[in-house]
Design a protein that fits this description.
The protein is mostly beta strands. Helices cover 4% and strands 65% of the residues.
Length: 479
Amino acid sequence: MRGAPLVLILVAATAAEAQQQGSVQLSTDTQILSGDAQRRGQEHPFEPDMGLLWTQPRTRVGQFQMELRASRRGEDLHLGRTWLALRDARIKGLSWTFEGGDLYTSANFGDARFTNLSAPAITFTGAAANARSAKTSLQFVAGRSTAWRNIFGTDPDALGQTLALGRAGYQLTPRIQLTAHGSRVRTTDLGEFPRTIDASDQGGGGMSVAVLPSLHLVADGSFVRYRATGAARPVNDYSYLGGAHLLLSRGWVQVNATRFSPGDLPVLNAALQDRSGVFGAGEYDVFSRLRMFGGWETLDTNINPTGTALQRPEGSSSRQFAGGRVRLTSRTTFSVRVEDGARVSKPVLPGLPVAFVPSTSDTGSRSAELQTSIGRLTAFGRFSRRDNVDSTFTSGTYTQDDIAAQFYLNVTKQTQLFGLASQLTNRPASGGSTSYLQFSLGGQQQLVQGLWMRLEEAPAATKMPERASWCRARRSASA
């Protein structure tokens, strides 16, 4: 089919030794993409990735692991993600894990488990040491931030950003946990990614208290000293987090207040920076088959516009949401969600004309989802409508409908079929509408033990060919 991509992913794994003798696993992920060059965009017709993982379960000092991967960047094959680790080494009463190479770590230490404070992992090339005992946990990290360059997440590219990080936790009593953390970040070049902070030093600590088995309080504070890109001198600032978890017999409630300085761990993948706000949310089982949920949040961004990179509009927004999930049968649920929010954006650049006023926008959405599992079939359907009204830009006022459905069928333990169909329709206030249709169908078959072949075909049709190319590439990458 002209312009239709064909995705083939082959995965193989073989065990070379028994578990006590160690093991060697060989794997490969390969994408073959067909279609005309204009619609493929930046994707290569042939995208290979090969790996070797050696695990030695038990040595005199712990468990040893090493992974080597061969990847492709541009037209060249080269060494991709590579790392080694020594786990469960006993030193001074602590169980240590030492790692080196292409690694990742959590952006947050001592997970506060608030639903509004999730962040992706920090990826870096360097070294890490972690230690743990019944009451103590330690972590030390040093290296350079990395960006992943291929669709398999196995081709790290080290950037001009160095990171040093130290964290500690101590269980003072069964109800009280203390934490401490510090970091040093220096940035010179992030390539195509935006750069806002050139230097940052941070130190602080926190506490988690279980007042009751059902009530947990969390608090954390940091002193931050940073220099924004384009600024002549550093700024002294602060960050904080305070909140509570309340566990109910038939639900839960969370509330928190936060402020994250622009210089709060300004590494490539960390998202919790330069923002402050208040959040509250909860869920409750009204009946055995009905669960209601809702929440509210305010958020301010660009809270300290210093330097040149931070001289962008200050934002102030609020969001409210509510809905419910109904269990129709033991394996079928139907949910509805309504959300509304508003945002005010204020310019901070000097010398702007008086006529330039803050812009406002109001966004609301409604969605309905159906999930079901019948025998060997699992299916999902969703409809959502989003309305946006912008006071300044007519192009920012629109209504958008999104319809999606997908299924996964276990024909046998060795054979699976899957499919996806979605349609996105955008109707701007200026008139007219555009629609984008995406669908795919595929399957995977186990050839021998540990060897699978996956085949997927995803033709696309749209009124905007350049947009179709981008969306199709995104779907292929997630396969």
